Amino acid sequence: xxxxxxxxxxxIVALTSFGFTTYKNDFFEIAKQIExxxxxxxxxxxxYVDEVNPAELMNTAIEAMINDLDPYxxxxxxxxxxxxxxxxxxxYTGIGAQITSNPESIVIKNLIKNSPADKAGLKIGDKIxxxxxxxxxxxxxxxxxxxxxxxxxxxxxxLRRNNSEENITLKRGVIKEKAVPxxxxxxxxxxxxxxxxxxxxxxxxxxxxxxxxxxxxxTQIILDLRNNPGGLLSEAVNVSNIFIEKGTLITFTKSAIExxxxxxxxxxxxxxxxxxxxxxxxxxxxxxxxxxxxSIQDLDRGIVIGSRSYGKGLxxxxxxxxxxxxxxxxxxxxxxxSGRCIQALDYLDGESIRKEESEYxxxxxxxxxxxxxxxxxxxxxxxxVEKESKLIKALIEENLIFDFSVNYVNQHKELSxxxxxxxxxxxxxxxxxxxxxxxxxKSETDKKxxxxxxxxxxxxxxxxxxxxxxxxxxxxxxxKEKAFENETETLQKLITEHVLRKLGYDAAVYNYYTEEGEVxxxxxAILNNESDYRDILGYE
Length: 540
Description:
The chain is of the alpha+beta class and 540 residues long. The protein is built from 16 helices and 23 strands.
């Protein structure tokens, strides 16, 4: 004990002499808690009545500690570190499919055209129930890892499709996902670029595509960042740099630790600082997407259209630990050039708390327009069809829109990307589908009524107010039915996307956007009206 105290004292003195007292004034408290934890961990392992697994016990402790923080501070083992590197590179060995896992199977949610999965005959909606000799339902780990392997190695799969089973053999390969999966020159010389992720090649792909579209005659640009979850900060700055002159602040970070405070400016000569730009975002546009859209908006370089972005403005930095493991720790927050914090959520005991609009702070763009913090990036022009209500999010979370769309295509063999047209009958069929599946949307009001019933029952008031509570529930159910009707346009959009993706990959969805998408229609209308475009940006 004396040696421990002497060591702690020595470290405190050393930190103080280097000016770090403000960095960790609570160092002794940290040492004290580590000592307590170490002793407890030892005593449990030595004396607990049942046999315990030391590694599992420690993992539980680590996870519990991290769960008390924000969801982006995580602990990674060696495999997870490798997966993160692969995601950022945009190149990996696998089958070329987006998957989700459930206890019974692995579901194919999306396919890359001409990928190993596509060439082997896998379809969106297929459920893989066996990989090699291993039944997915009997595998306790992440069954998706079994699909990975060296290039050109084969794996046998048993899958269930439309209530029938079949076996296929798939040869793995090197998958290179494009950061720009689609581009097009549209009527009126408007160039359209989809940027799906901020990998290491994001800015170079956008530059190459942009220059190609300009050669084809593009005089205006739409940059689609919808559903882009983000990626590398450096690539966000480089993408903004395409339209913004060298030496311009794009984002900066603030931290409790001064050395993590940084400013990020454009480093290269811009490709084009004059071409009119419209950036599209939605609730799934996060992180790097918000840095690009936020800088474009704050600097009045272009208009932002869609729905309010996700609001992920926390910066993580990997910290190496022992035995090849790593912690990704939130160290600071992102801010846009005007000083807005992108972060929409605070965290208390691991639970997210969304800020109220009354708590937002006003900031000014380069031209003096009012913008606000605390809620991601609010578009200059909001489009209702892009907004996802709690009802829509519940339907997405339970995969009901996806499952309905897959079933619909499987049951209509005559369908193609050319002849598919969504109508009210399809929405009616969807309502029947979710009713048959037993879907019941539970609003916050539903939860409160249930809580009130429980409290009333415990206090012997339930019998006297039961009728009133039942009437309240009936009225709420009517309001929820109206809410469903109000979401018809958004449902039509989402079902159309899923159906077209199954019929013709992502390209069919992007093509639908350019021909029928409400957001792009509004972007085109603004870009084609110079007066409205300049008015939105605050130019005289």
